[in-house]
Amino acid sequence: MLHKKYCIIILISVLNFIFILFSNVNAESHKKEEFREWTVICYLAGDNFLDWFMKENMKELIKAGSSSSVNVIAFLDTTDNETKVFEVNKDDLIRVPTRIVNYSWAESELNTGDPGTFIDYASWAVREYPAKKYSVILGGYGEGWTGLMHDMNNGQGDIDVLSLNELEYALKAISKEIYNINGKEKIDVLGIDACYMGMLEVMYQVKDYADYLVSSENEEALDGWPYDKLIKTIINNPEMDSSLFSTSIVDTYLDSVKGNPSKMSNVLTLSVVNLELIGEVVKEVDALSSLLINIKRMNPRKIIFAESITNKFLISAHIAGKYVPYTVLLDLDDFVTNLRVVMVKNKQVSALAQRISSLLSVAITKERHQSLKGKYDLGIGGVSLYFAGMDIKGYSDNNFSVDTHWDEYISETASIGQKVFKKN
């Protein structure tokens, strides 16, 4: 009798083990079946003068919504003193209480300039909406290497900005979360729908955490990208890869704007960069910087001329209630092209400039821009670089400045400029 009892116990234990084993297998299979092709994670920072435009972007997202193959999730912070998180469906929104994302978010007025806010929201979206491919899109103010995602009320009534170092920190954490879900080490497509973020400095800072970056060298349209159209692109073709989706963002944006501006500061641009190649570009720019520093100290005239004829983008404005010091950005490809022409007799400079142009032609997989009224093509290349401004000292903190001699080159340029000014 006792033997029979033990047999029954063993049999029950074996059956329980088999049940648990198959339950786990089924759970894993079910989990894999729930993986959609894409999850698009939107982070809209509108707690500033872009409030109305961010709300319009939300309306565009609703027009497209999600599908059986594409998840669309949105974080919206506006001047209403309330931050909202949504699962976006066609013609409908499912609001997710912020405390579901992070239990400590009892107060729903959140700070988009805090990397912790970005990490918690995006990591939650990655976990809750598993996908084979992820796109993270940041929409809001941008001011190049000095930061983005401005919040005029950080919860304590102060202005906060997400710095490049904080952006890198956040993307690193989000990338780890993606790896835990689908085994990929990077975000497939990182989109920055903000002004002046198409800088080499920005690309170098984020290169280890995304495959492709979509960004603009110049200011953007106030209403930003046409979210309904770009989401519909992957809904109509969810099998498209990261490169194709990135390219489609550029086309939908430039196709949506009409007319041509009358001045350079209003020319709309957008480009796609394969971040895997940015390290090589930066290596060559560093070598060129070192070479130009020495040449400029001895005979600066030709280099100054090349700089003077290069396409430039100017930042000088009050952004989100914060004054941005006068800043000049150079178009990198236009600069090295001009150097090749002006310094054709210097074989070292010509070779390095040619090398950078060649690398850019491969790294920049798509670039489009408007033309100026009545003018020939501007020759905008898709990547800008800090050239001059009031805050050269602060510029030395980003990864690009730490790893290259470019900050020393622009400091030398400023020094020579001051000497010329004194002579005159």
Description:
The protein contains 15 helices and 14 strands. The protein is of the alpha/beta class. The chain has a 9-stranded mixed β-sheet, with helices on both faces. Helix 2 packs parallel to helix 7, helix 7 runs antiparallel to helix 8 and helix 9 runs parallel beside helix 15. The C terminus is likely disordered.
Rg on CA atoms, Å: 25 Å
What is the mean predicted local confidence, pLDDT? 87
Order of strands across the main sheet: 4-3-2-1-5-8-9-10-13
Give the total of beta strands. Answer: 14
Largest sheet: 9 strands, mixed
Spatial gap, N to C terminus: 112 Å
Beta-strand content bin: 15-25%
Can you tag this structure with a few keywords?
424 residues, alpha/beta, 3-stranded antiparallel sheet
